[in-house]
Amino acid sequence: MHKNKTNKVLDSKLDSVSIALKRSIKNLDSYTHVRGESLYVDDINIRQGTFHAVVFDSPKAHGKIKRIDYSKAEALEGVERIFTYKDIPGENEIGGIIPDEPLFAEDEVHFWGMPIALIVAESEFIARKARQLIAIEIEELPVITTAKEAKAKGNFINAPRSFSLGDTEKAFQDCKYVFEGETFSNGQEHLYIEAQGAYAEPLENGNIKITSSTQGPTSVQKTIAHVLGIAMHKIEVDVTRLGGGFGGKEDQATPWAVMAALATYHLNQSVKLILNRHDDLRMTGKRHPYESTYKIGLSKDLKILAYQTEFLQNSGAAADLSPAIAERTLFHATNSYYVPNVTTKVISCKTNLPPNTAFRGFGGPQGMFVIESAIAKAAHEIGVSTRQIQEVNLLDENDTFSYGQIAKKVEAKNTWNSAKNIFNSEALEQDVKDFNKNNKAFKKGLAFMPITFGISFTNTPMNHARALVHIYLDGSIGISTAAVEMGQGVNTKMMQIAADVFSVSIEKIKIESTNTTRVANTSPSAASSTADLNGKATLMACNSLLERLKTVASQDLNVSESSICLKDECVYVNDKKSELLWTALISSAMLKRVALSENAHYATPEIHFDKTKEKGHPFAYHVYGTAITTTTIDCIRGTYEFDYVKIVHDYGKSMSEGIDLGQVEGALIQGIGWMTMEEIAYNKDGKLLSNALSTYKIPDIFSVPKIVEVIPVETEGNDMAILKSKAVGEPPLMYGIGAYFALQNAIKAFNSKYELEFHAPMTPEKVLMSLYKK
Ligand code: LUZ
Ligand code: MOS
Q1: Which of 595, 462, 596, 434 is nearest to 526 (CA)?
Q2: The pTM is what?
Q3: Is 344's pLDDT higher than 60?
Q4: Average pLDDT over residues 346-372
Q5: 527 lines ligand 1 (CB under 6 A)
Q6: Does the fold of domain 464-603 match that of domain 1-38+403-462+613-774?
Q7: Which atom of ligand 1 is nearest to the CA of 523?
């Protein structure tokens, strides 16, 4: 990251930003991004005497620690101290949902890359050198790397969960067609551009301030307090922005912040710990690989009457967020389809991999891949197109999800039919057929991918947020919320909300850093819900202030409150501009001793879920959409391109078309990457083989579809969404699943003997093998 050179305010380009809610506003962070002025943890001006830290981690995936010799490392000049679990004053425990994860290994190691010690030195270079001088002896124990092995050995994180609707057993007996099979979807590396890191500073009286690259400042604060055995109020966590999160910093930004804080606690000196890319890849968890089995039953008119699955989640060596992720897999197991009889089960399997964690979609994509596989299998066996089965089973108004929620304001058919009409899908399908008839060495494949994604933290108590809004006496405004800016543009959306309520210029508003002393006890920025939750709280706080200001104005102008509105930084009376300007109104409020600060709390209404029955209404609303993906395979080489992805997406009423389009495009490409080219590989000893960007390939500009077209579906939006602008962070990732099935259809066009396999990612190697498999 570049160092900050200037501290100029946003330039004159912003003068032209309209005062009213402009639904086409740009991400305001882009101005500092392109100049290299945006600040990340590694850009902080560190205090004199700051120490630098490096983590010493396990070189084996499972074993007993027999001996560690730190003496040579400690003797190296410039090494200040090496911390282990023995230096922890509180508890050596960082598990968020289940207390099963030590910060530092004690007698045993459970994954390759598990932190054992923290080396603190005058420079990172010295700390790294010291790390090489540590000698460790480990007595190896058997290593489990797959969920299936873990299940066979009875290694689990927690008890399985199961959702059911109707009578699945009985329904299978009424089916004309029944098919069974298995699927695999691999993990995925987050590859945020900014690696994990934190900077800890000692304050007076034993207080510590942490600047962390985290999606969850409160988790960081709480865990530091727990590990240090001190009260939460002694810890201040501050976040300016992240260089990407994607779920990888919902829980797993915490350990590094705790380690830095632990060293600061002991040394009373600032400590900086930023992982380099290799350390980050090796030590952190990823998207969960899933091994799943399915059974699907259809009637003669292709209605899915029954569906049954068992999802084996490869959770890694500790729970982390796995139980919550497993739950969301069940919530999304039937994707956009109504299935009257469903039984789904998920088992979180404990393996010797780094604890796998949240990743955009949070288990939902893994669940959707399985039903899309089951439908593709059924279509293949029956001899119809996958699209036909998808189409007749789309979710309708008032259908029941397996978890009991009744589907309302459903846009599944609307987006599907809009996609068909707007993009003329019949012609697209014909083009593919014609192409395949006329070409031998190249084949095309097309797939439809509908999505339905539930918005809210599935854990109901997490659905709350607060906003603290100050109007300063010159009329400028500062806003603090729990929203963490990670490139998704949430700060711009918060500014828009305040600008809209007060009808002031964007330049009058500043979004403050996310800080636990200003907004406390927060949920992480996650679950696509950050703008909804924090935006609603911001809206409430601004509206309260507005009411107060209207009272002031009515007194100053001697008119009724109801005749007043604020427009373009002026007070209007019965829609006529008065002499009273925004700045004068604020001065007047100050003289009248009116409070110009407000703190508001928002908790999503209506939602609930009963885990003992596995029924309820967990989601505020759903986001819908349909994508049509077409690929061309080079059948000599197995390489492929995506001709286009054409999407009709349910934005509700977008607050910012540019930002939301960016989210759809980014999520789509990330989803395609997961399904096609990103291949995480561990060897049987549990060592990460795809441990660099030379061995782990993510989509670059050359591998994105040649055309990505996104059309908003015309809907009213939803009042549970902020200003009717629906959550957009995660849902579009699942359009990427269409890439897998487009490739499969192209393979089928080349190789009539191809037996369908559902084993993602569909890398060029796998495509090549499939083209010639008999
Ligand atoms: N995080 C979480 C999430 O704690 N709960 C969720 O339901 C969720 N969903 C998506 C992404 N992160
Ligand atoms: Mo998340 S997967 O941190 O919304």
Answers
A1: 462
A2: 0.96
A3: yes
A4: 98
A5: yes
A6: yes
A7: 4
Q: Which ligand is nearest to the CA of 328?
A: 1
Cα–Cα dist 712/715, whole Å = 9
Pocket test of ligand 1: the residue of 97, 246, 458, 486 to mutate, having most ligand atoms within 8 Å of its CB, is: 458
Whether the Cβ atoms of residue 104 and residue 88 lie closer than 8 Å to each other: yes
Whether the pLDDT of residue 13 is over 80: the answer is: no
Q: What phi and psi, each to the nearest 5 degrees, are found at residue 599?
A: -120, 125
Say what the pLDDT of residue 716 is: 80
Amino acid at 682: Y
Whose CA is closest to 274, among 539, 100, 50, 602? 50
Strand ranges, E, within 2-78: 51-57, 63-69
Determine the residue type at 293: T
Q: Assign a CATH topology to domain 1-38+403-462+613-774.
A: Aldehyde Oxidoreductase; domain 4 (3.30.365)
Peptide bond into 761 cis (omega under 30): yes
Amino acid at 582: W
For the record, the structure tokens of 324 come out as 């919550």
If phi > 0 it is left, if psi is from -120 to 50 it is alpha, else beta; for residue 335 that is left
- The predicted pLDDT at position 236 comes to 98
Which residues are within 8 A (CB) of 576 and not within 5 positions of it... i.e. 6 or more apart? Answer: none
Q: How far is the CA of 322 from the centre of ligand 1 (A)?
A: 10
**Integer Cα distance of 177 and 297 in angstroms:** 5
Distance 320 CA to ligand 2 centre (A): 13
Residue spans of alpha helices (H) in 305-462: 322-331, 364-382, 386-392, 412-422, 425-438
Please report the pLDDT score of residue 250 as a whole number: 98
Q: With a cut of 70, say whether residue 3 has pLDDT above it.
A: no
Write down the domain spans for the chain.
1-38+403-462+613-774, 464-603
Ligand 2 atom having least distance to the Cα of 526: 4
Pocket of ligand 2 (CB under 6 A): 215, 247, 250, 358-360, 362, 526-527, 730
Confidence at residue 691, expressed as pLDDT on a 0 to 100 scale: 96
Tell me the one-letter amino acid at 311: F
Q: Specify whether the CB–CB gap between 416 and 387 falls below 8 A.
A: no
* Residue indicated by tokens 């190697």: 765
Pocket lining: 458 vs ligand 1, CB cutoff 6 Å: yes
Looking at every residue in the chain, the average pLDDT score rounds to: 96
Which residue is closest in CA terms to ligand 1's atom 10? 527
Residues annotated catalytic, as ranges: 730
The number of beta carbons lying within 10 Å of the beta carbon of residue 561 is 12
Which ligand gives the minimal distance to the CA of 250? 2
Pairing of strands 304-316, 341-350: parallel
Which of residues 9 and 384 earns the better pLDDT score?
384
Distance 361 CA to ligand 2 centre (A): 7
Helix, coil or strand: residue 451 = strand
Q: What is the CATH code of the structural domain delimited by 464-603?
A: 3.30.365.10
| Per-residue model confidence as pLDDT tens digits over 733-743 | 999 999 999 99
Judge if the beta carbon of residue 192 lies within 6 A of ligand 1: no
Residue 303 makes CB contacts below 8 A (sequence gap 6+) with: 392, 393
351 close to 145: Cβ distance less than 8 angstroms: yes
Q: Please report the DSSP string for 464-491 in residue order.
A: EEEEEEEE-TTS-EEEEESPPPSSS-HH
For 184-194, the pLDDT digits (tens) are 999 999 999 99
